[in-house]
Write a structure and sequence with these properties.
With 739 residues, the protein is an alpha/beta fold. The protein contains 21 helices and 39 strands. α4 links the parallel β2 and β3.
């Protein structure tokens, strides 16, 4: 095993910058004329793509039939996974030989292919190979294996497993007393008070896996995930999966095959994520020993944590997020880059950041090196009765880290299933939040005559929707993002379990969207270390320049973030705290965070507002539309005055209109979506320079027409009429593009 892993790691070290990127993999700066010449029939790399399962005793004739059906439906690419009931063992020579023929069929149709990196989800179990062949590299966790309540004067006396990492007495008031372990034995007599002795051990635990190689066809723990925090485990994962494909179809990498698609790696486990080198990594980063706190942390769901313990939990998850990024996500992204491919990945719990903080650590840290960050909308996260701004997480990761694409996995588990009209709504709600690569779920192989496209994909209007999606994906991938407002996601507060921070963040997303403010979500790492600061602007790796940073109810911020925000404000940028300034500032550790000093944030603007909580989407769709975000009179005016002038404004407020925009070499493109169940009619003002003109790009028809517009201060004003759930793409051409 070590020889195999070593070869892969060495290969990554010497791959340099990897294979040359193709145009679709790069940020670009096209002219309006260049985009117009291509957008009607964009390259297949821009999708859309169905998620296709190679299930059953599938033959090439079935594959050919299904690929032809996909093309007739308007699909340009396909995401492909090994399927349940196959008569070829996963990753076997027989399966790989068949897959080679499948790739040839995709190529013959001038389609493109993404390879699902496992035989199901979450990614990282290699179809059961870790459990069967390398059990030492399975996922691990810290768990409480014994809990004994004892009173004053009573003794705890026990022989312990070699897996024991801590024995702790927890007092009724939260006090922690470490019980020494001598030669595998612990003995302790309780002082006054009531105590619970907790024994913490490390052991193999796994999130449940839904594997198409599991004969029980259930989601369970029989096929363990790898140890995501150990790069050696991921090297073995690459050897099992990616390298197997490279040996057989590597000549199609970067051509027919665009990359690998991962799905929902996480720690949905009881206990704390752990790896054998965790304590060493924790001491190196935080400078203290975490073992005395483990008993409290592993039973946090059973007993409330003290403030001290919450800070330690934040430190624990900070180290966990580092190890997850460097142990699992980065090695795969590096491998793909070295072979001319992209790594496409979405996480679990994207719309529930408190849950994501526990199971994956941090969205942005996980996505730091992923070339195509994503989200999923597979149940009821997006419908006409919901407010769903979470897709901006994926598009923001792409913008902040300098990637042209962000993707969605949509539709799979909707109950009820959408029809084609609702599918259009669900895709548009993601387009207007910056998602620009559309994957639709599910298209099982028609092996037994029962597979094929889902019901709504069979509707007569569906091919038009896919042609529309291809054009919209292309348009919204060109040029550079143009948002100049950044919304900070306070990671330390999520790790501490600060529910109000999470709720305020979600409500602020909604408030900005309802006022047509295009924004990116930004993380603390980007502010503290990654993004250059130029004349009062944080510059993303995609080139958009943030003129304002909004911080919604952050209770605790790292000192490095505070210092950079201060420098940003001093150079002309705007820092806006919603609710109040942070109460705590952390330097090396959250545990030792200090109280904020009086006047320490005098350089920032603070709006005292307690935003109402955006409700959780219901399980099934009612027929009513969501009410607008209620805020006290004058609150929005205070916020708007602190922000830079908006590129698009309405003559009369309308909360149902959403906007995002991008810049080309000589034009700005605006995507507008009327999310409301009522028509929109009103005057819209667009920022523009002298001599500019406005065009309407009809994405469905592939037509371009001039728009009558009136001169207004620093731009144009035009009358806009939009039926419910309609989109408009407006392109503001500069004088240079006209002359």
């Amino acid at each position: 095993m070590m020889r195999v892993c070593g070869k892969i790691v060495l290969g990554l070290l010497f791959c340099g910058m990897g294979a040359a990127q193709q145009p679709w993999q790069q940020l670009n700066n096209p002219s309006r004329a260049e985009v117009a010449s291509t957008w009607k029939t964009p390259p297949a790399e821009y999708g859309p793509e169905p998620y296709y399962g190679l299930n059953g005793a599938i033959t090439l004739d079935v594959v050919r039939r299904d690929l032809d059906t996909m093309k007739a439906l308007g699909y340009r690419a396909v995401v492909m996974q090994y399927g349940f009931g196959s008569d070829r063992a996963y990753l076997s020579p027989e399966y790989m030989a068949f897959f080679r023929e499948v790739v040839h069929e995709v190529s013959q149709r001038e389609m493109r292919l993404w390879i699902v990196d496992d035989a199901g989800y979450p990614s990282g179990f290699a179809g059961g190979k870790f459990s069967a062949e390398h059990p030492e590299l399975r996922m691990q966790a810290l768990v409480a294996t014994q809990k004994k309540q004892i009173a004053a004067g009573e003794s705890f006396d026990a022989a312990l497993s070699a897996n024991t990492v801590a024995v702790t007495a927890v007092g009724a008031d939260g006090a922690l007393v470490q019980i020494p372990v001598v030669q595998g034995h612990a003995h302790w007599t309780a002082p006054a008070g009531a105590w619970t002795v907790v024994v913490v051990e490390h052991g193999f635990r796994t999130s449940a896996t839904r594997s198409d190689t599991n004969p029980k066809r259930t989601k369970d723990g029989t096929q363990s995930l790898e140890d995501y925090l150990d790069p050696a485990a991921t090297a073995q994962y690459l050897a099992f999966t990616h390298e197997a494909y490279r040996k057989v179809v590597g000549d199609e990498f970067g051509k027919t095959i665009l990359g690998f698609r991962g799905d929902e790696p996480d720690y949905s486990i009881a206990g704390l994520p752990w790896t054998p080198k965790f304590f060493e990594a924790f001491r190196a980063k935080k400078g203290y020993e975490v073992r005395p706190y483990l008993a409290a942390l592993v039973q946090a769901k059973d007993a409330p944590l003290t403030e001290e313990q919450r800070r330690v939990r934040a430190d624990y998850y900070d180290v966990f997020a580092d190890l997850f990024r460097d142990g699992f996500f980065k090695p795969q992204a590096d491998w793909c880059a070295a072979h001319g491919l992209e790594y496409q990945m979405h996480l679990n719990h994207e719309e529930q950041q408190i849950e994501l903080a526990r199971s994956e650590g941090d969205f942005f840290r996980a996505m730091r090196f992923v070339q195509v960050p994503g989200i999923d909308a597979i149940w009821h996260q997006i419908w006409t009765d919901t407010v769903s701004d979470f897709p901006r997480l994926a598009s923001s990761a792409a913008h902040v880290y300098g990637h042209p694409h962000a993707f969605t996995e949509s539709f799979a588990a909707y109950r009820p299933l959408p029809d084609a009209a609702m599918a259009r709504y669900i895709l548009n709600e993601q387009f207007v939040r910056g998602i620009n690569l559309m994957e639709t779920m599910y298209f099982p192989a028609s092996t037994d005559g029962k597979g094929g496209p889902m019901a709504f994909m069979r509707e007569p209007s569906y091919p038009d929707l896919m042609h529309y999606s291809a054009r919209m994906s292309y348009l919204m991938s060109q040029g550079r993002p143009a948002a100049d407002v950044a919304l900070l996601l306070s990671r330390e507060d999520l790790w501490r379990g600060e529910v109000k921070t999470d709720a305020t963040f979600v409500s602020t997303e909604r408030l900005l969207s309802e006022h047509q403010v295009d924004f990116d979500v930004i993380d603390e790492d980007a502010i503290a270390r990654l993004l250059p600061l130029e004349q009062g602007r944080f510059v993303s790796l995609s080139g958009n320049r943030y003129r304002a940073v909004i911080v919604p109810h952050a209770h605790l911020l790292p000192q490095a973030v505070v210092d950079r925000l201060h420098a940003f404000a001093a150079s002309g940028g705007t820092v806006l705290f919603l609710g109040s300034v942070p109460a705590l500032i952390a330097e090396k550790t959250n545990l030792d965070a200090r109280a904020t000093r009086p006047g320490e944030f005098a350089w920032a603007t603070t709006v005292a507002v307690d935003l109402p909580v955006t409700p959780t989407p219901p399980a099934y769709p009612p027929t009513t539309a969501p009410a607008p975000m209620p805020v006290a009179p004058g609150v929005w005016q205070q916020i708007a005055q602190a922000l830079p002038p908006n590129a698009l404004t309405l003559a009369a407020p309308k909360d149902g209109l959403r906007m995002m925009h991008r810049r080309w070499k000589d034009a700005t493109v605006y995507l507008l979506f009327n999310e409301a169940a009522t028509a929109f009619s009103g005057a819209v003002r667009l920022a523009a320079g002298p001599g500019a003109r406005v065009e309407l790009w009809d994405v469905q028809a592939g037509a371009i027409a001039p728009v009558a517009a009136r001169a207004a201060q620093k731009g144009f004003e035009l009358d806009l009429n939009m039926e419910p759930y309609a989109t408009r793409v407006l392109v503001v051409r500069s004088r240079a593009s006209i002359e």
